[in-house]
Amino acid sequence: MRHTFIILFTLLYSLAAVGQRQCGTAVALQQRVIEHPYLQQVIDNNEKNMLRWQQLRSMRPQARAATTNQAVTIPVVVHIVLDDPDLVTDVQVMSQIAVLNQDYNASNPDVSMVPPVWQPVIGNTRISFCLAQRTPGDEPTTGIVRVKTTAGRSYDISGGAPDVKYDQYGGSDAWDTQKYLNIWVTRLSGNFLGVAAPPGVGYPSQQEGVVILYSAFGTSGSVGRVYNLGRTTTHEIGHYFGLKHIWGDDGGSCAIDDGITDTPLQGDNTYGCPAFPKMDNCSPGFPGIMFMNYMDYTDDACMHLFTAGQAGRMRDVLENTVASLMSSNGCTPVVLPDNDAALVAVNGASGKRCDNRILPEVTLRNKGTRPLTSVRIQYRLNNGTPVSYDWQGNLASLQSVKVTLPATRVTVGAYNLQAYTQQPNGLPDANAANDTSSSRFHYDTEVQLPFEEGFEQDSFPPPGWDIYNPDFSFTWERDRNTGHNSNASALVRNKGYNVNDQTDDLITPVLDAQGHDSVFLFFDVAAAVYSDPDMLANVWDTLQVLVTKDCHQTTALAYSKWGKNLITRPTATKDEFVPTQNEWRRDSVDLTALVGKDKFQVVFRNISNAENNIYIDNIRIVTKDILPDLRKAGVLIHPNPTDGIVWISFYERPDDLLQVNLYNAGGQLVASKAGNAIGANNRMTFNLVNEPNGVYFVKLIYRNRANTIKLMKVR
C-alpha cells in the first residue's frame, strides 16, 4: 500500500481546486523526494547549476545574445494513450505544435495583450518544435503514436505518471529522450491537466517528458472549454526546461521565488482571468503580479508570455542538460535507399542460459524501397568462426520477419553474439550502419546439491545467480552490513517503491539433485511493514519461493507469505527496517514434489506494495534419501510393528491407485481412504491408537490389480 500520508497529501492538494487548472509537476516531485530522500540533493544541485548559468549569462551579455539568437527546432513525438486513440486527431496534434511554436517564439497573437509595463521583458526562446519525421531507427514517421488502453483507463500523476510511459503497463515506451521531446496525451486522474518529468532532477531517462490531459491538448477536436488554447502543454514544457511555477510553490508565502529576476514576487497561484493590475501579499503595489505568465494557473485565454529571464533559463537547460536535442536529426525526413537489410533484434540468446544449445533468432527488417527477396545472415560468438544462413523470401518495404539461425553449442562462459547481414538482393547494402545487432548471454556451471549461499562475496548477484527486474527500478541487492550471524544478506527496499505490485526475482544457479528422493530449502528471513499489521484489506509486500525447470519461462509456487505471516518485527516501522539479530526467522520449504528428478532453479520473488524491507540470508538447499526398502518395493508401511500411527509411503505417486482399505484379522473394515488422499510428501496416514493389538491387513486397490500387506500393532 502507498504510504498513507502521501495519499492524503495528494488528495488534499487535488481537491483544493476542483474544476480549475491543476499541474502535477511539483506534487509528483515532492512525492518522489518523500519516497527517495536522496533526490533532494539532486534537485538542489540542479537548481544551483541553473542559477550559475543564469549568472554567467548576465556577466556576458554579448555571448548571451549570440546564444539566444540561435534558432533551434526540437523533434517531438506525441504518444496518444487512450481507450479511443482516434479521439485526438492529427489536426488536433498539429494545432498544439503550432501553439508551441508561437508561444516559445513570442509570436502568439495575444502577446499584444501583455500590459505595457511588461512588454519590455517579453522573452523569445528561439525554440521551435516539429512533429518527428523519422523514428529512432531512421524510418519515416508522422511523429504520432497511438496506443489503445482498457475502457476508461486513467493515469495517476504520482512519480510523473510512469505507467503511461511503458508498453508493459499499457502505455507507450518513450522514444530516445536524448533525441526527442516525448509528449504523452491521455486521461489523468485527480483533476490534473498535466505533469512534467524534467531532465536533471532524478527521473529515469525513459520517463523524461510531459504528460497532458487529452481534453487540454491543442485547440480543436476533443479539447474542452477554458483550457482550449494549448497553454497546458506550453506550461508543462516550461517545467521540462527548468521553470518553476511563478509563485515558487511556497504555499502562499513570499519565502520562495521562482528563481527568475524579471518575474515579480507572487504569493500563490491565480485562477480564472483577472483584470490588470492584480496585487497580492508579495506584490502589493503596481503593477502587481504577472498572472498572464504561462507558468501561472490562469485560463488559457489569459496566458500570454514567458519573460526574457524565463527564456534564458530554458535555453540554459536546453544547451547544458539536453543539448543533444539541438543536434537531433528527428526533424529531417528519411530518404529510403533501394536495398537496405537491417537486423533490429537478436532473441533466443540473452541473459542467463540454462541449456548449452543456443538457437538464435533475429528480426530482419527491410529498410529499402525494393522488396527484399534474399540476404545472407551471419553470426559469431566472441569473434569466433561465423555461422552463415542464406535467407530467401519476399519482404515488403518497412516490414519485418523473424529468422531462426542455425543452432550451436557453447561451453561454460560469457558470450557476445553478433549477427549481421550481407548482400541484400545480391547487391551491396546501402546502409551498413544498421546491418549489425548483438546480444550478450552467459552459460554457467550447474551446481550439485547440497548448495549454500550467504551473500558474503562482493559480487551480486553471486556467480551463476540471476536477477529478473522487469520495471528496471528497485530490485534485489546485497546489504554488506546486515546479515543473520553473518556480514551480509540480500534484500529488496520495498519502502522506496512508488508503484504497487512490482515483481522482482532472485534466481539460483541451475541445481542438479542427482536422482535424490527429496529436496528441502532452508533460509533465514527478516521483514517488517510500514502500515499497521492488523489493518484489514491491506495489500502487503509478499515473499514467494518458486521452482522453475525451464530457465524461468514457467514457475511453480512452493511458498508464499505476506503481512503478519511474513514479518519478523511485530509492529509497524516508519523508518527503513534494519533487523537486529533477534528479528530473523528460519523458514523451510519441501521442494520434492515440484522438483521431481529434474534439474531446477529456485526463485525468490518479492512482490512490492511499498511497505518495508525484506531480507533473506543463509540459503541452504539439501537432499534427503528415502528408506532403501521403499526405493526397492515402491510402497512401504511403517513403522511395522506400530504402536498407533502408521504411514503408507510411496516411492512415486501412483496414478492408478483407487482406494486403500485397512482390515483387522477378522476381515472387518477398520478405515478407508481414497487413492487421491496421498499427501505432498507421497505419504498417507492411518491412526490405530484406539484399535486393539493384533494383526491387520492393508489392501491397496489399483485400477487393474490389488496388493495386500500385513501389519502388526503392539503396545
UniProtKB/TrEMBL annotation:
<feature type="signal peptide">
    <location>
        <begin position="1"/>
        <end position="19"/>
    </location>
</feature>
<protein>
    <submittedName>
        <fullName>Choice-of-anchor J domain-containing protein</fullName>
    </submittedName>
</protein>
<feature type="domain" description="Secretion system C-terminal sorting">
    <location>
        <begin position="637"/>
        <end position="710"/>
    </location>
</feature>
<comment type="similarity">
    <text>Belongs to the peptidase M43B family.</text>
</comment>
<dbReference type="InterPro" id="IPR026444">
    <property type="entry name" value="Secre_tail"/>
</dbReference>
<keyword id="KW-1015">Disulfide bond</keyword>
<keyword id="KW-0732">Signal</keyword>
<feature type="domain" description="Peptidase M43 pregnancy-associated plasma-A">
    <location>
        <begin position="172"/>
        <end position="319"/>
    </location>
</feature>
<keyword id="KW-0482">Metalloprotease</keyword>
<dbReference type="Pfam" id="PF05572">
    <property type="entry name" value="Peptidase_M43"/>
</dbReference>
<dbReference type="InterPro" id="IPR024079">
    <property type="entry name" value="MetalloPept_cat_dom_sf"/>
</dbReference>
<dbReference type="InterPro" id="IPR008754">
    <property type="entry name" value="Peptidase_M43"/>
</dbReference>
<keyword id="KW-0378">Hydrolase</keyword>
<keyword id="KW-0645">Protease</keyword>
<dbReference type="Pfam" id="PF18962">
    <property type="entry name" value="Por_Secre_tail"/>
</dbReference>
<keyword id="KW-0479">Metal-binding</keyword>
<keyword id="KW-0862">Zinc</keyword>
<dbReference type="InterPro" id="IPR013783">
    <property type="entry name" value="Ig-like_fold"/>
</dbReference>
